[in-house]
Design brief:
6 helices, 14 strands
């Protein structure tokens, strides 16, 4: 393993509503045949262990723990069968989401790209050491409390599908990142809703 942070030119592709439990809690209805993809900027992330920043113009900064992968070699029009050969390594991802801004329009780019609102890392686990990604689990804790937990094999669109789909419209480059989506248990859907506040600690583990 090694510590790492994406280069400023890296593209960060994120899969939305990619677990049934999260789809259902968000009231998204049935999933379509293709994954829903949005982009985050490197500027929206900090290194794991560094503080994320609660925006001054919202009270609805939410957590989303995810498994992410880093592309190791260019991929264009990749088949499912060859998709995993383009994965260099795996890491943890915290897709911090500003819920009110996310719903300003049908496109939720703003709510996903506040500066320093998410986190990645701190370690990259080489693909050969990580093994079968579907055999792993994903756990998110806030202040030590487990708030999200899932088996990664419950993805609606698996990693092979994500790589094949994205590489069909753009060439994935070495260093690009794909965050594979969060499971159920986000703060907004708790009763009452719970959002991140200064001093809170979020941990994402795989496993």
């Amino acid at each position: 393993c090694m510590t790492w942070f994406p280069q400023r030119h890296a593209r960060i592709f994120c899969a939305a509503v990619n677990y049934a439990a999260h789809r259902d809690e968000m009231g998204r209805g049935e999933s379509g045949p293709n994954p829903m993809i949005f982009l985050r900027t490197p500027q929206s992330l900090v290194r794991a262990g560094e503080p994320i920043v609660k925006p001054v113009n919202t009270e609805s900064l939410d957590w989303e723990g995810e498994l992410a992968l880093v592309i190791g070699k260019p991929a264009r029009h990749v088949s499912r069968e060859n998709a995993l050969s383009h994965v260099a390594s795996w890491t943890a991802f915290m897709d911090g989401s500003v819920r009110d801004w996310q719903r300003h329009t049908a496109q939720f780019t703003g709510g996903k790209n506040f500066d320093a609102s998410g986190s990645i890392g701190p370690e990259l686990v080489p693909a050969e050491a990580f093994g079968d990604y579907k055999a792993h689990s994903l756990t998110t804790r806030v202040n030590g409390e487990v708030v999200q937990h899932t088996s990664i094999d419950l993805m609606l669109h698996d990693v092979e599908a994500l790589i094949a789909y994205i590489s069909a419209f753009t060439e994935l480059q070495t260093g690009d990142i794909i965050a594979t989506g969060t499971c159920g248990g986000v703060g907004e859907k708790r009763v009452p809703p719970k959002f991140l506040m200064p001093g809170d600690v979020v941990e994402v583990r795989t496993p």
